[in-house]
Automatic annotation (TrEMBL):
GO terms for biological process: respiratory electron transport chain; tricarboxylic acid cycle. Its EC number is 1.3.5.1. PANTHER family: SUCCINATE DEHYDROGENASE, SUCCINATE DEHYDROGENASE IRON-SULFUR PROTEIN. This is succinate dehydrogenase. Belongs to the succinate dehydrogenase/fumarate reductase iron-sulfur protein family. Its cofactor is [4Fe-4S] cluster; [3Fe-4S] cluster; [2Fe-2S] cluster. It comes from the Bacteria. Pfam families: Fer2_3, Fer4_7. Residues 150-179 form the 4Fe-4S ferredoxin-type domain. It is an enzyme of class 1 (oxidoreductase). It comes from Rhodococcus rhodnii LMG 5362. InterPro entries: 2Fe-2S_ferredoxin-like_sf, 2Fe2S_fd_BS, 4Fe4S_Fe-S-bd, 4Fe4S_Fe_S_CS, Beta-grasp_dom_sf, Helical_ferredxn, SDH/FRD_Iron-Sulfur, Succ_DH/fum_Rdtase_Fe-S. GO terms for molecular function: 2 iron, 2 sulfur cluster binding; 3 iron, 4 sulfur cluster binding; 4 iron, 4 sulfur cluster binding; electron transfer activity; metal ion binding; succinate dehydrogenase (quinone) activity.
Length: 249
């Protein structure tokens, strides 16, 4: 399988960057996008050239480390699939693709396809946690949670924090990511006591680094975990809830 790759090269955060074109003749349909970059980098190194820098870790679609933009779409053409699970069988033999990093003001480029996604970490640090008593673990049935509520919490906890939703949004919004954390923790019994403070802290940090929701909806179609759009409404709902309860107090 032959494929032409137009890849973004940027030597560092202060470099302007540029696209460079490469031709790969020994690709196979079974390769993922990251496998393809591995093979391309082998050829570049053999030729005495710098390999393309990109992020990867588990390559099983669960860690959220990988993330590249393919032909203008975060992760690639297959909906709700991370970069490491996008395969060349979805591209024509002899075709071409343009690969670049996730594009967002909140994600400055470090080198080539690698971006700094620490803005997402700051949202989690602001309130993506629960306080628990240290010591002996409580009995499993001491804090009962209905099955449907547990399943709901797990569905929203599935977010892997890759940042594709931010890159897909024209405004660089992180509402889908933030909403998934708010719903997940507000649903669990352990997270209810800090619900209001968490909403205030998380949304405040989100607004510092990311743009407003664009109502574009593309965030949900690129999310590898399939987080639904209604997670976005949780951002406003949880913030309003905190405000009303504070006035009542």
């Amino acid at each position: 399988m032959k494929i032409t790759i137009e890849a973004w090269r940027q030597d560092g955060p202060d470099d302007r960057g540029r696209f460079e074109t490469y031709s790969l003749d020994d690709a196979t349909p079974e390769m993922s996008l990251l496998d393809m970059l591995d093979v391309l980098n082998d050829h570049l190194v053999d030729d005495g050239r710098d390999p393309i820098a990109f992020d990867s870790d588990c390559r099983e679609g669960v860690c959220g480390t990988c993330g590249i933009t393919v032909d203008g779409r975060p992760h690639g053409p297959t909906p709700n699939t991370p970069s490491c699970r996008q395969h060349l069988r979805h591209f024509p033999d002899g075709g071409s693709m343009r690969i670049e990093p996730f594009r967002s003001n909140a994600f400055p480029v470090v080198r080539d396809l690698v971006v700094d996604r620490s803005a997402l970490d700051r949202v989690i640090e602001a309130g993506g946690h629960v306080a628990v008593d240290a010591g002996t673990a409580p009995d499993a049935d001491s804090q009962p949670l209905p099955h449907d509520e547990a399943e709901k919490a797990l569905d929203y906890a599935a977010c892997i924090g890759c940042g594709a939703c931010v890159a897909a949004c024209p405004n660089g919004s992180a509402h889908l990511f933030t909403g998934s954390k708010l719903v997940h923790l507000a649903t669990l019994t352990q997270g209810k006591q800090e619900r209001g403070r968490r909403a205030k802290a998380i949304t405040g940090q989100m607004e510092e680094d990311f743009g407003p929701c664009s109502t574009f909806g593309e965030c949900a179609t690129v999310c590898p975990a399939g987080i639904p759009l209604d997670a976005i409404s949780a951002v406003g709902r949880e913030s309003l809830r905190f405000g009303f309860r504070r006035k009542a107090d």
